[in-house]
């Protein structure tokens, strides 16, 4: 995964998005549906209807970047809402992209005894 800039906001766009959309179509969705600036340097994450594909739109400062991922098995965990957006941390985005439920991560058991 490409390292995220410090302090970047990650927006998970609720609902299903037409994965045929490219740079311009997704940027228009950011402006029209979220009333956000797609050129702000924030990340905007979109999921397809089947739930196995995501696209991430990001302005790097000198150009628009579009990243895509398809899971071969399983689905990306998404909010139940059909519109709006949810903010994620970089760690939650990393879990999401690995197919892990970022809403309720299971931590390993803390050691009880030092041996």
From TrEMBL:
One Pfam family, short name: TnpB_IS66
Source species, domain of life: Bacteria
InterPro entries: Transposase_IS66_Orf2 (IPR008878)
PANTHER family, A to Z: BLR8292 PROTEIN, PTHR36455
Protein known as: IS66 family insertion sequence element accessory protein TnpB
Organism: Steroidobacter gossypii
